[in-house]
Amino acid sequence: MPRSSAPAPPVGALLRHYRLPGEPLSCKPVTQGLLNRGYRLATTRGAYFLKHHLDGDHEAISRQHDATKRLQALGVPVAPPVEDADGTTVAVIGGRCYALHPWIDGRHRNGAQLSTAQCRRLGSLLGLVHTCLARVMEPGQGAQAAYESADPQETFALIEELLVHSRTVRPRDSFDTLAEHRLLQRRALLARYADRRPPPGGGGGWVHGDFHPLNLLYRGAEPAAIVDWDRLGVQPRAEEAVRAAAIFFVQPAGELELTKVRAYARAYRRAAGADARELAAAVHRVWWERLNDFWILRWRYQLDDRRADPQFPAVSALAVWWTKEYEAVREAFAG
Predict the structure, then answer these.
(1) Which helix (H) or strand (E) holds 86?
(2) Contact at 8 Å (CB) between 95 and 87?
(3) Taking burial as the number of CB atoms within 10 A of a residue's CB, which of 188, 247, 263, 306 is the most buried?
(4) What SS3 class is residue 303?
(5) Are 52 and 121 found together in one domain?
(6) Over the chain, what is the mean pLDDT?
(7) How many Cα neighbours within 13 Å face the side chain of 292?
(8) Tens digit of each residue's pLDDT (9 = 90 or more) over 184-210
(9) Are 284 and 242 in contact (CB under 8 A)?
(10) Which are the contacts of 41, defined by CB distance < 8 A and separation ≥ 6?
(11) Helix (H) or strand (E) run with residue 277 in it
(12) Alpha carbon of 89 to those of 30, 159, 325: distances in Å?
């Protein structure tokens, strides 16, 4: 459900906990993510990013923090949290978990704002993340597990449910009309390609888990910090590379900038030590994932949450375009 007004974070108690000098000046929300709440905390001695971890999983948060500290030592651009006097990074105040990070002045860039050279740099950066995570993290549970792909029969049932919502919602607007069109279109595509469901995949390794433009800050032409490590976990690494490209390089009409994808993917493969066959398999699995995915419509119709609505035109068009241009997309990643 949409989030109600959040209680103000305990700024004074946090500054005392971390023994930070200066007086607080302001504490303003900067994100509206589902996993956490973020704030820009300004003091008379500097600025910080204050994160309220809503899930309160102290162990998982500490693992994320330890990972970023180790990654920074290997040259990965990250923003590890501030430590308190005891060297810990998670502050539990009033039963809630908080962390302070240095404020990084930077901007987000999507693929359209990146030169070809910067696309190569982006692919190399993600490859560096994956190889460095393999060095600093313990072998993850489930690394050899099989990862099931989406079941089209379950998707068909979901489509029928979402079609009812899109047709009966009142007042009905242009979004609902487009949703109905895309649902019917996707149902037909799934019926046509149901026999191309990929088998269970493997090859899991530690990944960032949510690598996209809003989690990467640039300072000038260079990446300054990879942020938001909440989904750090074990997944097939090449699939993260494909998912990231599908977000960075999607155009408003739902097409991928394949020239930039090719530059990015070749750099990733070199940096991560991944071969063309691995990327081709990842392309197939992520394509299938996109064909079966309706997260934006689930947010809107099942959760009454419309924050992701602006993404729907491009995201829904991408699955259709990707199906039509399947071979060209695979070649861009694996060629």
Answers:
(1) none
(2) no
(3) 263
(4) coil
(5) no
(6) 93
(7) 22
(8) 999 999 999 999 999 987 778 999 999
(9) no
(10) 11, 14, 24, 26, 27, 47, 48, 49, 50, 100, 103
(11) helix 276-292
(12) 21, 44, 47
Determine the Cα–Cα distance for residues 284 and 148; give it in Å rounded to an integer: 13
Q: Is 20 left (phi over 0), alpha (psi -120 to 50) or beta?
A: beta
Do 227 and 204 share a structural domain? yes
Query: Do 80 and 184 fall within a single domain?
Result: no
66 and 202 fall within a common domain:
no
**Beta strand 91-93 with 46-53: parallel, antiparallel or unpaired?**
unpaired
What domain range is 330 assigned to?
111-149+179-334
Type of residue at 212 = H
Residues 211 and 279 in one domain: yes
CATH code at position 58: 3.30.200.20
First to last CA, the chain: 43
**pLDDT tens digit string along 266-276?**
999 999 999 99
Confidence of residue 3 (pLDDT cuts 50, 70, 90): very low
With tokens 């070649």, the residue in question is: 331
The kind and range of the H/E element at 41 are strand 36-43
Convert the pLDDT of each residue in 217-238 to its tens digit: 999 999 999 999 999 999 999 9
How far apart are alpha carbons 333 and 268 in whole angstroms?
10
CA 123/CA 261 separation, integer angstroms = 9
What tokens were used for 191? 């019926």
Residue 231 lies in a domain: yes
DSSP string, 109-120: --GGG--HHHHH
Identify the CA nearest to 117 among candidates 243, 266, 224, 238: 266
The H or E element that residue 309 is part of is: none
Give the residue from 68, 70, 67, 71 showing the smallest Cα distance to 128. 71
For residue 1, being part of any structural domain is answered with no
pTM over 0.85: yes
8-state DSSP, 211? -
